[in-house]
Amino acid sequence: MNILSSLRHKVRKEFNSILSRMLHSGKVRSLSTLLKATISLFALFLSQQSYALNITVSIPPLAGMVAPLLSEDDQLEVVLKPGASPHGFQLKPSHVRLLQNSDLVLWVASPVDSWMQKPLANLGATELNLKGLVDIEELPVRQGGLWEKKNQHIATLSETEHKGTSVDSEEHSHNHEHEFSEASQSQRMDGHLWMSFKNSRLLIEAVSKKLQMLKPNDAENIRQRTQAWLTKLDKTNQQIKQQLLQVQKVPYMVLHDAFQYFEHQYSLNGIGSIQLNPSVSPSLKRVAELRAKVKAGQVSCVFREPQFPEKRVLAVTKGLNVKVGSLDPMGVVSKKFQKETGREFLNYDVFILQLSNQFNDCLSKANNQ
Ligand SMILES: [Zn+2]
User: Is it the case that residue 232 has pLDDT exceeding 80?
Assistant: First the structure.
């Protein structure tokens, strides 16, 4: 729906509702009352000429990318609430209404927020997604959990084929919600696309263009805000490069493989993940394997995540001499932060710098031992 028709629709709806309320309450005593109502509606119409946009995003980091482009009266909503994991999430009817009332919806369009796919298609919503952007950087999903054994277990479209081999049962049940339109995909891509600075820039630029089209009167301001924001992000990128230079070689293990793009960008030394599937606890056999790696001194840091049970990390690290850190791929904000700012997300520069600090905290301690 284009802006003007949606605007007309809004005003007509408002007019009809006021008129019917007046008729029902018997308040239309004279033509002048009706005239007043018409004038106030016309004023409403004019005031909406500087149309405020409703933007909805699937996950918090996307909100953090585009918030600095918006003007004060634009509304920015996040579907996934702070602290929730996108893996296995399901939309409620209220979310569908939110999407319905949005001028623009932003999502990753990967397994991470595949729960957006159907409702968006059904609603015919105006949307932009990371995956669909030209030049987007995509990396293949890393298989097997221990990445130096790359491609040891390549998931195919018919995973059942592997039944009866020596690979443990967890690997066979893995990643079903990590798969997205799998029938059309011969090689699965890592869906955590927002972890790449380059990808984030692409989304910001695409959203900026879209906003300029939706709000032609505000286009120059949007362009300026975009430029300032991208300059700021470039500085943050340089800052992170500097920060992580000293810890590039330190081997670490993550809870689930959400950080490949970040790792790739800053040349970090991730050696594997505890979980193969975000919604399933690792098998005992797997935990034993990982503990052996830690014991052998092949892992200096193990990272947990606030969205997942801590016991999954403890099972691997308990009683062993290894540093434990925390990584937050969603940029969860505290209740206090929400109250003070009215926001459910961190701006992307803060989010990504926080992630860098989290890596650095643990890796630099391990480095100094
Ligand atoms: Zn994930």
Answer: yes
